[in-house]
Structure to design on (765 residues):
């Protein structure tokens, strides 16, 4: 098999080299005029991609660049003048801002609380949903349901569930426990939001893992069985390595989403009590739209961006190791 | 053997993360379109529809304004009006975006606390001359609430409605406990001690529950410090005065309701004012006395009609003085860049005209801004409104200074610490003063 792969690889490389040579040849003879087949193809390609490129430039790239520019200015939308340059003042101010540093800690804690459960339980559910058992379609649909309900609607439902007369206190009462203010207690508010967020993330993650599981060739499991591997060994040496690309994606995308948490915070706790659930994204909202300090808010957004980028990179590196 | 696909996945994942992070920045980068001094909605077209933004999402208010009042105004003035209701939480962000993009409406509603900021940025039209041109009878009728829409003596906002916060109580629960109606804050605390029902360390029924959710706790504190004879800010609005002995006493009283051995209340931080009226602790019997607005009291009775005979409202409680939070609530501003200022003013004047304003107050469950409405069918038909009308002289609103929203948030944060027992009243107020001082100085 190794030999075949090597030969196959050689043939593929040879084709690639030939193709490259051919392409270079085309460029050398006709492409330079810009009117040959390659030039026309490029022009047609450009025309077809232009709408998307324009969209991306105007609605994605420009706001990012403008936001980056704003982060070096002082600007209120109520002001009639242009943004006033302040150099790196907004960034240095953040270093001394207790509220901002606390919001970063809260964000990291929130991600750390949600991520392991949102990934681990989703993987378990995917393994369950991957089995051929009666009613599996219904089970999959039920498990996916939280994913398709808007986060705002879900948050409102959970707001009631956490209320003094809500489901959790009913459950506590039935177990003989004292009721508590889940979202008003500094010690429980962030954990309560995290529980809701885990539940919300399960469906989407499960589907991704399910797709990953179904992409693993069955022959690998058969071979492992023939070699005497038990269920745990098959999971450890076939399933997990086979899921690695999906795992990298799921962990990365969850870090990106969770680090930007806003709607659930806005609805469930409003950042309280005592700032214990004020994530950085929520603080950015307050700074920009309550305090009208767009420059400072933009600086926060870019620091958050850098933090998310670093987290995602670490996650990918960590998950990507053999 | 499974081949390691890390390299490809790594790149894809990396691109995905980078793209998603880019989208995050696009959303949070707060892009604006600069701040030109050009025209607003409708640009320079004076014949285009008058655009009006109302804050709120109250169904009866939307129904009345869009289906009755606006058609009446259009018919009377031969004009076209385009009304948009914007959720309270979103009105500031939308207005900011509108001002930055030169698309703010001709007329918009907001609270008086926003007036100073808009005025400092010259985004709103001074209305003194237009108010002065109203008939003398109208001016006198509106007089009590007009002051709430002034910044440094200049009229910028026409109040649409008023409201005040008073202590409402359950007559049946006071009667059961043999407690008479308190007249002072000290008597209220004593009564609350008798009315509170405890089970070990848990409060089963609160004796006295003041509004303690975000921002509401600032309003409760304002009522208490006012009753002690203190103020939040100096007369010129440039210095903090809330850390005075009166302020400390007020905050100690407030925190004492929720903490310590003699605590008489629970649900610290809960926004029961914005819960469905039937779930208000006073309505459910989980509190014997609560602070509430006129609208909240009326809504409770509407939700639970049996409460009509069981709920009473106390006059402003006294300590050194008798003050409470109240005054103009929502009002209308005219955009300084509007191309239809005359029509915009006509609309604002129409909304506070006799009859119209009473209908509006009834729909929103607030107090009419016209003094003459006290004899109107709406007020006389609602006995529970009378204490709120009578308390008008005791009302004091938020300070009208440009930095108020930021200053309020600073104070709110430190009040929360004191109420949660994380800081003493003195320390919390001093810390808040130290943090808010530079904001006021920079105005």
């Amino acid at each position: 098999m190794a030999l075949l792969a090597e030969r196959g690889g050689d043939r593929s490389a040879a084709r690639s080299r030939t193709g490259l040579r051919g392409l270079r040849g085309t460029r050398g003879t006709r492409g330079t005029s810009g009117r040959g087949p390659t030039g026309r193809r490029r022009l047609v390609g450009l025309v077809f991609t232009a709408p998307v490129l324009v969209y991306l430039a105007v609605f994605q790239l420009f706001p990012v660049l403008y936001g980056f520019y704003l982060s070096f200015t002082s600007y209120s939308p109520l002001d009639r003048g242009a943004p006033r340059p302040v150099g790196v003042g907004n960034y240095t101010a953040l270093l001394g801002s207790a509220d901002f540093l606390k919001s970063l800690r809260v964000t990291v804690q929130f991600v750390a609380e949600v991520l392991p459960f949102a990934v681990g339980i989703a993987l378990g559910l995917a393994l369950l949903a991957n089995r051929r058992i009666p009613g599996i379609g219904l089970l999959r649909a039920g498990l996916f349901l939280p994913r398709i309900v808007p986060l705002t609607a879900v948050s409102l439902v959970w707001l009631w569930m956490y209320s003094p007369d809500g489901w959790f206190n009913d459950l506590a009462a039935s177990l003989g426990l004292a009721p508590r203010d889940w979202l008003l207690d500094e010690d429980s508010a962030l954990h309560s939001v995290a529980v809701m967020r885990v539940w919300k993330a399960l469906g989407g993650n499960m589907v991704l893992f399910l797709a990953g599981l179904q992409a693993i060739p069955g022959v690998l499991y058969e071979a492992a069985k023939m070699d005497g591997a038990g269920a745990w060994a098959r999971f450890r040496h076939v399933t997990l390595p086979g899921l690695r690309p999906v795992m990298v994606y799921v962990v990365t995308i969850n870090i990106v989403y969770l680090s930007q948490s806003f709607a659930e915070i806005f609805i469930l706790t409003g950042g309280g009590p005592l700032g214990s659930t004020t994530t950085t994204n929520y603080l950015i909202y307050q700074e920009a739209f309550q305090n009208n300090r767009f420059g400072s808010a933009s600086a926060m957004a870019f620091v958050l961006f850098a933090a998310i980028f670093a987290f995602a990179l670490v996650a990918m590196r960590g998950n990507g190791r053999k | 053997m499974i081949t390691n696909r890390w390299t490809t996945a790594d790149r894809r994942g990396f691109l995905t993360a980078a793209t998603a992070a880019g989208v995050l920045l696009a959303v949070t980068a707060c892009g604006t379109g600069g701040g030109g001094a050009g025209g607003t909605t409708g640009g320079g077209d004076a014949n285009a529809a008058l655009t009006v933004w109302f804050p709120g999402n109250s169904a009866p208010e939307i129904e009345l304004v869009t289906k009755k009042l606006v058609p009446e105004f259009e018919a009377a003035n031969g004009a076209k009006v385009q009304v948009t209701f914007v959720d309270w939480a979103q009105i500031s962000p939308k207005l900011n975006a509108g001002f930055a993009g030169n698309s703010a409406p001709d007329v918009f509603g907001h609270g008086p606390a926003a007036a100073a900021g808009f005025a400092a940025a010259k985004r709103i039209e001074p209305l003194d001359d237009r108010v002065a041109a109203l008939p003398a009878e109208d001016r006198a009728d509106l007089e009590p609430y007009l002051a709430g829409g002034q910044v440094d003596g200049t009229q910028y906002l026409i109040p649409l409605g008023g409201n005040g916060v008073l202590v409402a109580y359950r007559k049946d629960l006071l009667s059961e406990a043999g407690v008479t109606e308190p007249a002072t804050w000290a008597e209220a605390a004593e009564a609350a001690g008798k009315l509170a029902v405890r089970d070990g360390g848990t409060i089963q029924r609160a004796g006295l529950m003041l509004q303690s959710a975000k921002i509401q706790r600032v309003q409760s504190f304002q009522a208490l410090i006012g009753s002690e004879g203190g103020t939040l800010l100096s007369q010129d609005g440039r210095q903090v005065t809330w850390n005075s002995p009166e302020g400390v006493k007020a905050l100690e009283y407030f925190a004492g309701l929720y903490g310590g051995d003699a605590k008489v209340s629970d649900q610290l931080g809960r926004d029961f004012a914005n819960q469905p009226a039937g779930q208000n602790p006073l309505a459910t019997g989980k509190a014997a006395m609560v602070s509430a607005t006129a609208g909240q009291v009326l809504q409770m009775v509407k939700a639970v009609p049996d409460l009509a005979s069981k709920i009473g409202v106390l006059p402003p409680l006294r300590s050194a003085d008798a003050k409470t939070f109240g005054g103009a609530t929502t009002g209308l501003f005219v955009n300084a860049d509007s191309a239809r200022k005359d029509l915009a003013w006509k609309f604002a004047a129409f909304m506070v005209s006799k009859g119209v304003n009473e209908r509006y107050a009834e729909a929103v469950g607030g107090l009419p801004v016209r003094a003459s409405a006290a004899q109107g069918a709406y007020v006389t038909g609602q006995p529970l409104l009378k204490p709120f009308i009578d308390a008008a002289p005791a009302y004091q609103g938020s300070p009208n200074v440009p930095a108020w929203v930021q200053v309020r948030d600073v104070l709110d944060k430190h009040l929360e610490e004191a109420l949660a027992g994380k800081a003493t009243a003195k320390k919390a107020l001093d810390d808040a003063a130290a943090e808010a001082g530079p904001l006021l100085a920079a105005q």
Q: What stands out?
A: Chain A touches chain B through 68 residues (CB under 8 Å). The CA atoms of residues 140 and 189 of chain A lie 30 Å apart. Residues 1-33 of chain A have pLDDT under 50 and may be disordered.
